[in-house]
């Protein structure tokens, strides 16, 4: 968890946790609930095309184990390949959640890489913002695109660190730094995290948060991994706030040589 004087603010609302987690790929709803509780996350993302939050009254409802009065439910448009489908999915989510405006926009370009289709992403972002949605947007690691999405009115940009579900870790720290340094909205790494050290690196770079699903749900022990990710995100944030020492090629003694007793 973040300290009380270091809240994450998205869409005007403050959160103490900077770890956002997905709800897919778990063995069952009990494991989903236990892992998310262990993560300490306050924002949980739900793929509306894959999870039941009321569309089918005859199936188990995810909201029974993740109640909206305890968590901020972040509907996402995973599985959408066009702006039209993404916008329609967001509007359905708003109806199901009683006017909920905060959404995660994700428009994919192809099935193999799951990279974002940025032309369709821009189109969808413009329409959704105009319709009153608070848009957190999945994007490639492009500082220019990040700036343009912020100008459209997105409340957070979410560049990938590596392909979705790959577990490759932070492969693009320099482009992430460019995005972070210019951004006026929160920057959250979305995709690529594989283990706790990856989450810590993202936070040490200055990211405002990390969103993950596969790294937790796909672990041998998801609940234990969720707890590890919670600690990694908090530690990385505190390290970034503390400020690391400069990298040097040569040694620097931990204890000064002057003023020694003998």
In spatial order, strands of the major sheet run 5-4-3-10-9
Helical element count? 8
Low-confidence sequence ranges: none
Q: Mean pLDDT across all residues, rounded?
A: 92
Give the class from helix and strand content and strand pairing.
alpha/beta
Instruction: Determine the strand fraction and express it as a percent band.
Output: 15-25%
- Which H/E pattern describes the elements? EEEHEEHEHEHEHEHEHH
Q: Report the span from N to C terminus.
A: 46 Å
Shape: globular
What does the main sheet amount to?
5 strands, parallel
Radius of gyration (CA) equals: 19 Å
Helix content: 25-40%
Explain the overall architecture:
With 262 residues, this protein is an alpha/beta fold. It has helices spanning 29-39, 83-96, 118-130, 143-152, 173-182, 196-204, 214-217, 222-242; strands at 8-10, 13-15, 19-22, 43-47, 72-76, 102-105, 134-139, 156-159, 188-190, 209-212. Strands 5-4-3-10-9 form a five-stranded parallel beta sheet. The chain has a three-stranded parallel beta sheet with strand order 6-7-8. Strands 1-2 form a two-stranded antiparallel sheet. A hairpin with a 2-residue loop joins strand 1 (8-10) and strand 2. The radius of gyration is 19 Å and the shape is globular.
What is the topological layout?
Elements: E1 8-10, E2 13-15, E3 19-22, H1 29-39, E4 43-47, E5 72-76, H2 83-96, E6 102-105, H3 118-130, E7 134-139, H4 143-152, E8 156-159, H5 173-182, E9 188-190, H6 196-204, E10 209-212, H7 214-217, H8 222-242
Parallel strand pairs: 3-4, 3-10, 4-5, 6-7, 7-8, 9-10
Antiparallel strand pairs: 1-2
Helix pairs in contact: 1-8, 2-3, 4-5, 6-8
